[in-house]
Every structure is written in C-alpha cells, then in structure tokens.
Amino acid sequence: DSGVTQTPKHLITATGQRVTLRCSPRSGDLSVYWYQQSLDQGLQFLIQYYNGEERAKGNILERFSAQQFPDLHSELNLSSLELGDSALYFCASSPFSGDTIYFGEGSWLTVV
Amino acid sequence: AQSVTQLDSHVSVSEGTPVLLRCNYSSSYSPSLFWYVQHPNKGLQLLLKYTSAATLVKGINGFEAEFKKSETSFHLTKPSAHMSDAAEYFCVVSDLGGSYIPTFGRGTSLIVHP
Asked: What is the mean pLDDT of chain A?
C-alpha cells in the first residue's frame, strides 16, 4: 500500500458526460501528479500541483481540469467525455518536486 | 530536456534464469532514475531509485540496476526470475535541475515461462 488513495476505482459513463476523480496523497506529501495510462499512448503526464498551486502541465486536454485543495487532496475533472478518454488514471504524490513519487491504484474510466 | 527509452517492449525468460531490462536516458541535468513495476490491474510500485550516490542500486525483490553515465544507461537486472516477476516495468527519469516532472518510458513487459 503506497498510501495514495484514489476513488472511484472503476467508473463507467456515457459520452458527453462529466466525471470527477479524487485523490488523497500520502500523509505529508505536498505534490500531486496526475497521469493517464492507455494502451496506445502509454503513461502520459497530465498535470502537477504543489501545495495547492499548479506547478506543471503536460498533455492535458482543455476538457480536463484539476485542482488541489487546502487539505492537499486533489480532483481531476473530465468533461465532454469521448470514447478515447477511456483509460486508467493515476494519481501520485511526493513530498516535494523531484523526489520519488508514489502511485495510487488508479481509477479505471470507461466511456461508452 | 529529458527522455527515456526502454529498448525492448517484451522480454521473455524462463523461471530461474537471469533478467535484463534495458533503459537508456537523456538528461540535461543530473538525473534521478527510477524503476517501477506494474502488475496487472495494479498501481505502479517503486522497485529502486538512483540519486547520485552509489552507481549500483539495490531494490526490492532481488532487483538491482547500475547507473552508467558514459553509456547513459540504467539497466535493470535480477539473477534469477520468478513467476511472480511477470509484470510491466517502467524506467523513469527526473531532471533534478530541470522540470522535476518524471518522464516514463513506454514500458517493458516481462514474461516468465515455467
């Protein structure tokens, strides 16, 4: 158990809908990362937050957004969902930028 | 800029034989290098990490990796494969002087035959 908690573990939704994925980092970790894993794209970095502020952006679509709250948990919002958004979404955390990151078990999103 | 290349998408070994998973990296700064393992339908688990201390790094489950700056490599090895080692392995680089965002390789699927 890495200490990173993600909910929900599985989610099935229809195209055009919006979903929110939630992440609780390890106790004491200030940095949260979101990754998308799909068969064709591999593991893609989406976005990083550090102590409530956006630190870095990767290949995140405009339909997606995220935030980190004062209690350091983070949410990834996916809207106007398309079939191609079906993937495993990972949250990871680290004490600070550049340190080892620890992954949650992921949230499986299926868009039908 | 940083990048990482895992040279094999699949590696197949017999149980009890050595494992070699190859990784080459590119980094403009002093890199931190990691290996993660992902078992089916599971999250990624840290195997080991290199952060400019000893060049030979020992990890969990008998794995180790050697940092070779001259070859820009960080290959993962294990003397004797177990069936439970069958999984996806990811090599990761993070620039300590750059963006700090870990960059993942495409992964190597390790297949272990009885």
From this structure: 94
